[in-house]
């Protein structure tokens, strides 16, 4: 796929007490625009109004913000998803990856997002908003952690957010890659983001020192974690 995808394993305004985030700053810098248009897509949280408010507060004064509510949640109401074609950044929030994918497909978002990315819109997201861009992922959409295999596939392979930040994430992901339940892929710690251009990993950044990311793949009879070099922002 042509375009830029920024996959946050955790961090950003979603995990900030005061809304400030070096990862979000970096995301805005990637647009090359002084006051970028940023649309928040909170589908995975059921269009949580509190989540959308936190987004607006975090980006106030440095971006032209909007929210795409597919649940027609006040005060935003329903908007034609093709508004995403007019954005510099589409920022996808966390929540249920499975629910996000189901709703997006009903509203035609996969094709719209491909068109937007090809035209230069940066696609980004945290947690479920990381998972959605990959073909497969580790998710808690069904309660216990489980493999999900019907992602958008904008990036080949699988994804695991919150790799070291949530109990069981790493061990389960390694088991699923080892067994073939999930394809080889990428794991990102909290406060870490992977940057892909045209489907290829080009950068890894973190807003806290010591954060990690890995390429995870089957090797021999086991599974291998290859560390990815992560730059600490700021």
**Main sheet overview:** 8 strands, mixed
Tell me the number of strands.
14
Q: How much of the polypeptide forms β-strand, as a percent range? A: 25-35%
Rg, alpha carbons: 16 Å
The shape, in one word, is globular
Strand order of the largest sheet: 3-2-4-5-1-10-11-14
| CA(first)-CA(last) distance | 30 Å
Succession of helices and strands: EHEHEEHHEHEEEHEEEEEE
Helix share bin: 10-25%
Number of separate helices? 6
Unreliable residue stretches: none
**pLDDT average, as an integer?**
97
Structural class by SSE content: alpha/beta
What does this structure look like?
By secondary structure, this protein is of the alpha/beta class. The chain is 24% helix and 31% strand. It is built from six helices and 14 strands. The strands form two sheets. It has an eight-stranded mixed beta sheet. A hairpin with a 2-residue loop joins strand 12 (213-219) and strand 13. It starts with a strand and ends with a strand.
List keywords for this structure.
6 helices, 234 residues
Task: Characterize this entry briefly.
With about 230 residues, the chain is α/β, with parallel strands linked by helices.
